[in-house]
């Protein structure tokens, strides 16, 4: 067995330092390049990543560099590798049963009448994964050797890398039952059938030159999955027994990031594997664990979730404490670095003092290398690096703006967290004069090439501010006119002035900074630039009022004011870690509360406060969830608590398991909640009906993350299911999410179909009522 390296990372950003993969994938989808050109770009990115990581200090031939590339999503990759694609895509297989790259993209995005896989959040991160569909009929086989070829590619370039694959327990635990599966079927019951494919994969990876393989098993730390902790531990015991005793295989690293393994640690420790990676940023390990003899403990002490330089001395202390368990110790990141941008040195426009507090992916690799040197040569060998990190941390805690006396002096009372009773608000809002099944959208309209070019030209100083604002006014007017022509009931202004639903607010709130190149993959080819929330938050001036008021002046219909909620602003930013999240959320909430008051004063009667990330931050451990739900709900109620009874407050949530947080959604006390429901084919309405949710609800009828245009009949079917489950007075009609990522042709066609489907259902239900 080859010894595990003293320092490694669990994964690295894969979209490219300048989003090269995103651009190439989207060019392939658009037909501008062929598959060979896409493959060439991807190979160049992988090669550049290996060279970069080696240059930062990871070894070329000791398996410390992970082979963690993906064209779209690592869960989809694992499902395709074992042949687990739904029957509706079977005709896309090659003659030998393998699944190629075009087929993978079709499974991810859908095509024609074929719906794509459902999408949801990856544990408590803002990354989205595709949910496999597995049933008794699923035939497992090694249907893709892409990972094997990438290992061989690395070997040809002189690298011995560590291939990373989602493990069998997590793959099945995250899957949903296929449409053909009987009621009550659990995909985890297929474990025995998928394990031989993993055994085959391990053998091929070994033959290609892999000395170690990383099995990602984050499901083992979660208490928020359908499978119980005991079921997951039992599955892990069986899976690792089979894989660990395979005749031809690399050494196995089992990675369990995002929280503590808890009682399951003993199960993994007893398994015939060679290394275990544990998250020591968000988790802990027991004081004593039997069965660690001959195993390496990989201590995840560098935060893979956030971008702060952190306390390097405390990280080294944690590694030294880990040694007390009696096993060799390696330094690592707590999670894959796919959650952070590439390199803080690219951020030349950021304040230099702020930069000194930060560590992006490349800096985190350097931290791991430093800690590994300390493990080998002793603490004194890295004393200078530890002292520098400590000094930066102290400077950050005492810098101006981190603590603002005026922000902290704003007093709160219980009354600030509550509006009038819902029944009183519902009666007051009848004056809005809306029809049954009111039609609206979530907020954004397509961000066209013209919009992006105009914004870039304005930021470069190539067009004056007056010309840019006139361009934006024309865009808003066109969006308002389109919605009126389509027949929508509550309109939006389309948000052409916003580059991102969080960054736009970050740019207008004190306590935030924004990056130039800090891109992080959200899903597939989509990337976002999380803002940096570094200090106390306040609102120096109104943010959205002028654009909302202008849009309202163009129509007699109601115009929604559009705000991003406090939890989502935190979830989609890199947030300060020197105070409880609830305190930071309340600061953001107070800024939004002031914005809502100004919108009302400007005549806006419908205001949407988006919280798509409410489920996202839910802790993986059940004991930690009540406290999170308390402060997250309270921050939303603080933001909206000053709104008048006649003001209709909407919120929006997307791509979450709503049944888990349905009571929290109720507690938000929004007048109308719109939610993702189309891709999951309206499954959520059963949860809504079961709990007796009595506020307005808009289950989405249009999956905007797919290029498909839903037919009138498809939308009508979804609406009728909603009408069958939920009282008519509560129901709204809307897409799953904002339309920013779609083009106008498909958006207009889809909205026309939604309007027509709504007309048909209205005719039936209104007459019946």
Structure at a glance:
The protein is α/β, with parallel strands linked by helices. Helices cover 41% and strands 12% of the residues.
Word description of this protein:
Helices cover 41% and strands 12% of the residues. It contains 26 helices and 22 strands. The strands form 6 sheets. The protein has a 7-stranded parallel β-sheet with strand order 1-5-7-8-9-10-11. The chain has a 6-stranded parallel β-sheet with strand order 12-17-19-20-21-22. Helix 16 (449-459) runs antiparallel to helix 17, helix 21 runs parallel beside helix 22 (625-640) and helix 23 packs across helix 24. It is globular and about 75 Å long.
Low-confidence stretches: none
Multimeric state? single chain
- Order of strands across the biggest sheet? 1-5-7-8-9-10-11
Look at the structure and give the mean pLDDT: 95
Continuous helix count: 26
Q: Span from first to last CA?
A: 73 Å
Features:
single chain, six-stranded parallel β-sheet, 22 strands, 769 residues, 26 helices
Task: Lay out the secondary structure.
Layout: H1 20-29, H2 35-55, E1 66-67, H3 74-81, H4 101-109, E2 119-121, E3 128-130, E4 133-134, H5 146-156, E5 162-166, H6 168-174, E6 176-177, H7 191-207, E7 212-216, H8 229-244, E8 251-256, H9 264-270, E9 275-279, E10 296-302, H10 312-322, E11 329-333, H11 352-355, H12 361-377, H13 383-398, H14 405-408, H15 422-429, H16 449-459, H17 465-486, E12 490-491, H18 503-506, E13 510-513, E14 520-523, E15 526-528, E16 531-538, H19 545-553, E17 558-564, H20 566-571, E18 573-575, H21 581-601, E19 606-610, H22 625-640, E20 648-653, H23 658-668, E21 672-675, H24 684-691, E22 696-699, H25 712-725, H26 744-768
């Amino acid at each position: 067995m080859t010894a595990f390296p003293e320092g490694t990372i669990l994964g690295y950003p894969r979209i490219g330092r300048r989003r090269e993969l995103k651009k190439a994938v989207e060019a392939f989808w658009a037909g501008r390049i062929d598959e060979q050109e896409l493959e060439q770009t991807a190979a160049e990115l992988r090669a550049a990543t290996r060279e970069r990581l080696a240059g930062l200090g990871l070894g070329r031939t000791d398996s410390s560099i992970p082979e963690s590339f993906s064209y779209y999503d690592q869960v989809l990759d694992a499902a395709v590798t074992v042949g687990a694609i739904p029957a509706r895509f079977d005709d896309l297989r090659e003659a030998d049963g393998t699944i190629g790259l075009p087929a993978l993209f079709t499974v991810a995005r859908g095509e024609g009448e074929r719906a794509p896989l459902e999408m949801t959040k990856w544990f408590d991160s803002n990354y989205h994964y595709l949910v496999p569909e597995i049933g008794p009929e699923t035939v497992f086989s090694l249907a893709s050797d892409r990972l094997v070829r990438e290992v061989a590619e690395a070997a040809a370039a002189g690298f011995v890398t560590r291939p990373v694959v989602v493990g069998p327990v997590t793959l099945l635990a995250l899957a949903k039952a296929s449409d053909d599966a009987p009621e009550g079927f659990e995909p985890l019951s297929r474990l025995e059938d998928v394990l031989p494919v993993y055994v085959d994969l391990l053998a091929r990876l070994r033959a290609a030159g892999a000395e170690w393989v990383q099995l990602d098993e984050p499901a083992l730390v979660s208490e928020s999955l359908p499978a119980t902790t005991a079921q997951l531990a039992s599955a892990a015991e069986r899976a690792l027994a089979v894989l660990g005793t395979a005749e031809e295989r690399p050494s196995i690293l089992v990675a369990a990031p995002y929280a503590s393994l808890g009682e399951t640690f003993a199960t993994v420790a007893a398994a015939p594997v060679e290394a275990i990676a544990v998250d020591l940023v968000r988790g802990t390990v027991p004081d004593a664990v039997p069965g660690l003899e001959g195993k390496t403990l990989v201590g995840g002490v560098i935060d893979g979730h956030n971008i702060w330089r952190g306390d390097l001395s405390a990280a080294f202390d944690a590694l030294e404490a880990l040694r007390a368990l009696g096993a060799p110790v390696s330094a690592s990141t707590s999670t894959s670095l796919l959650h952070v941008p590439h390199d803080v040195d690219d951020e030349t426009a950021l304040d230099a003092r702020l930069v000194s507090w930060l560590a992006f992916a490349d800096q985190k690799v350097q931290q791991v290398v430093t800690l590994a040197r300390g493990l080998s040569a002793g603490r004194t060998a890295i004393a200078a690096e530890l002292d520098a990190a400590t000094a930066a941390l102290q400077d950050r805690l005492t810098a101006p703006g981190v603590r603002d006396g005026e922000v902290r002096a704003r007093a709160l009372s219980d009354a600030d967290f509550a509006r009038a009773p819902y029944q009183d608000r519902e009666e007051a809002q009848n004056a809005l004069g809306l029809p049954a099944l009111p039609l609206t959208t979530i907020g954004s309209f397509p961000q066209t090439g013209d919009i992006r070019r105009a914004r870039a030209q304005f930021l470069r100083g190539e067009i004056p501010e007056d010309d840019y604002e006139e361009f934006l006014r024309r865009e808003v007017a066109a969006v308002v006119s389109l919605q009126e022509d389509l027949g929508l009931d509550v309109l939006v202004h389309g948000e052409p002035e916003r580059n991102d639903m969080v960054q736009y607010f970050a740019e207008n709130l004190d306590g935030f900074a924004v990056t130039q190149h800090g891109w992080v993959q959200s899903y597939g080819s989509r990337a976002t630039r999380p803002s940096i929330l570094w200090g106390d938050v306040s609102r120096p001036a109104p943010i959205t009022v002028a654009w909302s008021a202008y849009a309202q002046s163009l129509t007699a219909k109601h115009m929604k004011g559009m705000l991003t909620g406090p939890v989502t602003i935190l979830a989609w930013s890199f947030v300060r870690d020197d105070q409880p999240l609830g305190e930071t959320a309340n600061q953001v909430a107070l800024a939004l509360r002031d914005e809502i008051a100004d919108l009302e004063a400007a005549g806006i009667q419908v205001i949407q406060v988006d919280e798509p990330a409410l489920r996202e931050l839910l802790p993986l451990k059940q004991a930690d969830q009540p406290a999170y739900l308390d402060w997250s709900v309270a921050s939303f109620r603080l933001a909206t608590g000053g709104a008048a009874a006649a003001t209709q407050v909407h919120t929006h949530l997307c791509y979450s398991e709503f049944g888990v947080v349905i009571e929290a959604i109720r507690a938000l006390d929004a007048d109308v909640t719109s939610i993702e429901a189309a891709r999951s084919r309206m499954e959520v309405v059963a949860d809504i009906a079961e709990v007796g949710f009595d506020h307005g609800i808009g289950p989405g009828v249009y999956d905007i993350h797919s290029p498909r245009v839903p037919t009138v009949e498809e939308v009508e079917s979804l609406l009728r299911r909603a009408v069958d489950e939920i009282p008519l007075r509560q129901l709204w009609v809307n897409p799953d999410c904002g339309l920013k990522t779609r083009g106008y042709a498909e958006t207009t066609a889809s909205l026309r179909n939604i309007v027509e489907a709504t007309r048909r259902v209205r005719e039936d239900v209104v007459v019946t009522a």
